[in-house]
Specification:
The chain is α+β, with helices and mostly antiparallel strands. Helices cover 31% and strands 27% of the residues. Strands 6-10-11-18-17-16-13-12 form an eight-stranded mixed beta sheet. A five-stranded mixed beta barrel has the order 1-2-3-5-4. It has a three-stranded antiparallel beta sheet with strand order 7-9-8, with no helix packed on it. Helix 4 (126-148) packs across helix 6 and helix 4 crosses helix 13 (404-412). Pfam families: tRNA-synt_2 (PF00152), tRNA_anti-codon (PF01336). GO terms for molecular function: asparagine-tRNA ligase activity; ATP binding; nucleic acid binding.
Length: 432
């Protein structure tokens, strides 16, 4: 008998199959039992009739508890009322392991702290199943986008001696006789080196920020997708980000639509997203916020409230461009028409989800980069290899970083980013 996954059962109508998985729910009525069965690809109802399976099999099924592992053999029957479109009429039930105690997650009113403490088991819940499938679709979309455009994937290091942003947000690690190194907060500097070799490059991997933040938008460990392209200037960079985010949304709508609906996402809001995305400069944004009653002046950074109000005006994500030079990182290219601002952008997701991309054209002039390092009190000698890129065939180039979990949280409509990653690392959580 062929072992089949639930997601493929529609191809086996009226055929005998074997399923391997777990009990999610169970109810019985006399000589008939209904098992909600899951196998990691979906959920299906297994009907166990005493007259069909016999007394011994029925007794085995009766002893099953929530999250018992088992093998089911039976016939696939079409059932339009079922979410999966089919059900299984069991002919044999083979328990693999029956728990000796109650499954810890059964009540509908568990606190979020309790659920996070049992995250290793909470992942088995239907909602978490669908969220992780949406995450999987987002990551597939990212890779597919770059592969279709002939980008080369470059895996950037997690241990780094160079700082991409500010040292205050880094985790220090003792690295043998070398001294202090850091857990990476960005692979950007290494991607800049790679783009000078391969032209168009990207990465996808974990990054770390030692920020004591407890907001619904922050994680300590999170995944980033970054890209760098040689000869790309600011406008090229903005278009690439726009294409990527639009591609991700369309891919998820096409491949994970049922998962979005299953968790209650209003998909009509995603369907309204259109290119080109709206834009405003930082200066225009400040003036708008001041008119809305915000106590903000030119040069101040935007917080979550400000980002929400800005993005709330639009159905599609919003580009805010040309931030003040002193408010941004040392490597950002000043605008030749106004050196007090830099050629950069933040992409703000609608519906209050805030920044999902930070981007800029990079400084390609050696002397200007040294000047900016000194202005930011960064050790020039630590950036010797980064400065080398400006000595040998330097060209204008641009790139960005997309926060994967923030993007998932927005697309899935999650209230908190902690559900967008399998095992969240937040200010007070490293367990499990």
């Amino acid at each position: 008998m062929e072992w089949v996954y639930i997601k493929n059962l529609k191809d086996y109508i009226d055929k005998e199959v074997e399923l391997r998985g777990w009990v999610r729910r169970k109810r019985s009525s006399g000589k008939i039992m209904f098992i909600e069965f899951r196998d990691g690809t979906g959920f299906v109802q297994v009907v166990v009739e005493k007259t069909t399976v016999g007394d011994e099999n029925f007794e085995k099924a009766d002893k099953l508890r929530l999250e018992s592992s088992l093998i089911v053999r039976g016939k696939v029957r079409k059932d339009e009322r079922a979410p999966s479109g089919v059900e299984i009429l069991a002919t044999e039930v083979i328990p693999v392991q029956i728990p000796t105690e109650d499954f810890p997650i059964q009540k509908p009113d568990h606190s979020i702290d309790y659920l996070m403490e049992h995250r290793h088991l909470w992942l088995r819940a239907k909602r978490q199943f669908h969220i992780m499938r949406i995450r999987d679709a987002v990551i597939k979309a990212i890779r597919k986008f770059y592969w279709e455009r002939d980008f080369i994937q470059i895996d950037t290091p997690i241990f780094t001696g160079a700082i991409g942003e500010t040292a205050g947000n880094l985790f220090e690690v003792d690295y043998f006789d070398y001294g202090k190194v850091y857990l990476t907060q960005t692979g950007q500097l290494y991607l800049e080196a790679a783009c000078m070799a391969f032209g168009k490059v990207y990465n996808l991997g974990p990054t770390f920020r030692a920020e004591k933040s407890k907001t619904r938008r922050h994680l300590i460990e999170f995944w980033m997708n970054e890209a760098e392209v040689a000869y790309y200037e600011h406008e090229d960079n903005v278009r690439l980000q726009e294409d990527l985010v639009y591609y991700i949304v369309q891919y998820v709508l096409n491949s994970a639509y049922d998962d979005l609906v299953a968790i209650g996402r209003d998909v009509s809001k995603l369907e309204k997203i259109q290119k080109p995305f709206p834009r405003m400069t930082y200066t225009e944004a400040v003036k708008f916020l001041q008119k809305q009653g915000f106590d903000i002046k030119w040069g101040d950074d935007f917080g979550g409230d400000e980002e929400t109000v800005l993005a709330k005006q639009f159905d599609s994500p919003l580009f805010v461009t040309h931030y003040p030079r002193q408010a941004k990182a040392f490597y950002m290219q000043p605008d030749p028409e106004n050196p007090e601002v830099v050629l950069c952008d933040d992409l703000l997701a609608p519906e209050g989800y805030g920044e999902i991309i930070g981007a800029s054209q990079r400084i390609h002039d050696y002397d200007l980069l040294v000047e900016r390092l000194k202005e930011n009190n960064l050790p020039v000698e630590k950036y010797d290899w980064y400065l080398d890129l400006r000595k040998f065939g330097s060209v204008p180039h641009s790139g960005f970083g997309l926060g994967v979990e923030r993007t998932i949280a927005w697309i899935a409509g999650l209230e908190h980013i902690r559900e967008a990653i399998p095992f969240a690392r937040t200010l007070y959580r490293v367990h499990p």
